[in-house]
Design a protein that fits this description.
By secondary structure, the chain is an all-alpha fold. The protein contains 22 helices and no strands.
């Protein structure tokens, strides 16, 4: 029966990946895979679904409730930046500075600026894609590489590495370990540098190979190449101001340390609220957008409402995958896996890397893997003597590696929006989102061993 349970656990992962590759809705796929785990492991149906998948400390709705305001605030801010033309203005300023032939670099930088400012990844893809089409056409670059550039800018170093990023991943680790969003800043910067450097090198290398092979831009059936005129866009200086304020507010608890007074109380509150403080910072950014950009002032409530709706699907997709993980952790196989890695005799950092990588691979979600890891194993590694800030940063960066297998919800969404298939684009995306983050993780593990924080 024990072997049957193990096979059921592995089979559920294979089923989840298989359905993801065929475009099955990720929420349905997560529920069906959870049922597969429950049946093959002879688990109680009602309790597993209600207290494992839906409720409980690792349940889908527990996660959704805890992080709803951060998802919503990020999506609303992203909608305000998009509807006002501020996001496009920032991208066009980069075009003028770097040239259209640097479309992949521009895409990476634009996505990075937006996601580091707190804009939800899914919203960034929608916001940057129309401009990207124009850049691709002018530079004659294949869409598969544009997809990889999107992934590099929006789904790697800004989500797991850069100090102060308001991403769900960073907030999960900070909340669980009592650390700040800027935990282990030197390790953070090192991981980001590795991902940026290797990622941009890979994109440029592949662009030159494609150019030599005569592979160019081919629009999808639903692609609309928009006019790149920036006559109606706000000045880039005004467009970037809300982003600067949001980032400044988020990192302020680390940079500002007053000893007394109301400002000290505010900074103390900010440092103790890894979820609410970035949410408040994003809300301030949204108010700045409404104040600065007159074209969205009259339709402000529509923008706010649409932004809230933008947050629902990403949040529910993430929650569904976490719910699947909540069922997985109840199995005997997972409990034995936890005991195995914790008592393996491996160096603690290497053991940590292996455990978070496996969990993220099973769930197909960095946030899901982190949520499970932080609830079930993180304190054991702290008890082994690891610095909580090192656990925070290494686990967060590592979670952004094997999470991006073909069944990853963010990968599926990106391919759907860009109208590409896994066969066409996943190889490049996989190198950017799996191989390079793993290299970055191993690099900061070595640095942490040498005492870098």
């Amino acid at each position: 029966m024990e072997i049957f349970g193990y096979l059921g656990l592995l089979g559920s992962v294979a089923l989840l990946i298989w359905m993801a590759l065929r475009g099955v809705d990720i929420m349905f796929a997560a529920i069906l895979s959870s049922l597969f785990v429950i049946v093959t492991n002879a688990m109680p149906l009602a309790d597993s679904l209600l207290n494992g998948f839906a409720g409980g400390p690792l349940g889908a709705f527990t996660f959704a409730g805890k992080f709803f305001f951060l998802f919503a605030a990020g999506a609303i801010f992203g909608r305000a930046m998009g509807d006002s033309g501020a996001a496009a203005s920032i991208a066009m300023a980069l075009v003028k500075k770097l040239g259209a032939d640097r479309a992949l670099v521009i895409t990476t930088l634009a996505c990075a600026a937006l996601t580091y400012g707190g804009v939800v990844v899914f919203v960034v893809i929608f916001a940057v894609y129309p401009l990207g089409l124009q850049l691709l056409k002018e530079a004659d670059i294949p869409k598969r590489l544009f997809c990889a550039a999107l992934a590099l800018g929006a789904g790697t170093f800004t989500l797991t590495a850069l100090p102060g990023t308001p991403s769900i991943h960073n907030a999960i680790s900070a909340s669980a370990l009592g650390t700040s969003l800027t935990a282990a800043p030197l390790l953070s910067l090192l991981a980001a540098a590795v991902m940026i450097g290797l990622g941009l090198w890979y994109l440029e290398h592949q662009r030159l190979i494609a150019k030599t092979a005569g592979e160019g831009f081919v629009p999808g059936p639903r692609d609309v190449i928009q006019d790149s005129s920036d006559a109606n866009l706000p000045p880039w200086q005004a467009a970037v101001f809300p982003l600067v304020v949001v980032i400044g507010l988020i990192v302020s608890p680390r940079l500002v340390n007053p000893r007394s007074g109301s400002l000290a109380d505010l900074m103390q509150f900010a440092a103790s609220q890894p979820i609410m403080w970035p949410s408040i910072s994003l809300a301030v950014g949204t108010l700045l957008c409404l104040g600065l950009f007159s074209n969205i002032r009259k339709t402000g409530f529509t923008t706010l409402g649409n932004g809230t709706n933008d947050s629902l699907m990403p949040m529910l997709n993430s929650a569904a995958i976490i719910g699947y993980g909540g069922v997985v952790v109840q199995t005997a196989g997972f409990q034995q896996f936890g005991d195995l890695v914790l008592n393996s005799g491996l160096p603690p950092l290497l053991s940590l890397f292996g455990s978070i990588s496996v969990i993220s691979a099973i769930t197909g979600s960095a946030s899901g893997g982190l949520q499970i890891f932080m609830q079930t194993m993180a304190q054991d590694y702290v008890a082994m003597g690891l610095d909580p800030e090192v656990v925070h940063r290494v686990a967060t960066v590592a979670a952004g590696g094997f999470d991006s297998l073909p069944h990853c919800g963010a990968v599926i969404t990106m391919l759907t929006i860009t109208q590409l298939t896994h066969k066409e684009a996943y190889r490049d995306t996989g190198v950017i989102t799996v191989v390079i983050p793993v290299i970055a993780t191993l690099t900061i593990m070595a640095a942490a061993t040498l005492g870098l924080r």
